[in-house]
Design goal:
Distance between the termini: 40 Å
Largest sheet: 7 strands, mixed
Shape: elongated
Radius of gyration: 14 Å
Number of strands: 11
Order of helices and strands: EEEEEEEEEEE
Structural class: mainly beta
Strand content: over 45%
Number of helices: 0
């Protein structure tokens, strides 16, 4: 089992910045990658950014150059630095951990979500 606790959401004006944090605990040794997803009202959850255990990163096109995902292995924490925020970034942001168990399978774990609201 992996537990994820998010923090850092809030209300910000367009052009502003926020940093989200996601602290992982439990069976973290088996986590292959972690990431951030978001879900706006009436829309499907979408990938924002991911980072692997080897620190390879991936971003959705609309956030490239504005958002940065990083990890602090000593703190078992993943961050999402969000700059130049736009109203269309408004959503509930969810932390995800993808766990690989060789010979067993894979699991997805989710945080409780944190609201990010960007006013115009």
């Amino acid at each position: 089992q992996v537990q994820l606790v998010e923090s850092g959401g809030g209300l910000v004006q367009a052009g502003g910045s926020l940093r989200l944090s996601c602290a992982a605990s439990g069976s973290i040794f088996s986590i292959h990658s972690m990431g951030w997803y978001r879900q706006a009202p009436g829309k499907q959850r979408e990938l924002v950014a991911t980072i692997t255990s080897g620190s390879n990163t991936n971003y959705r096109d609309s956030v490239k150059g504005r958002f940065t995902i990083s990890r602090d292995n000593a703190k078992n924490t993943v961050y999402l630095q969000m700059n130049s925020l736009k109203p269309e970034d408004t959503a509930v942001y969810y932390c995800n951990a993808f766990q690989l168990l060789p010979g067993v399978g894979a699991n997805d774990y989710w945080g409780q979500g944190t609201q990010v609201t960007v006013s115009s």
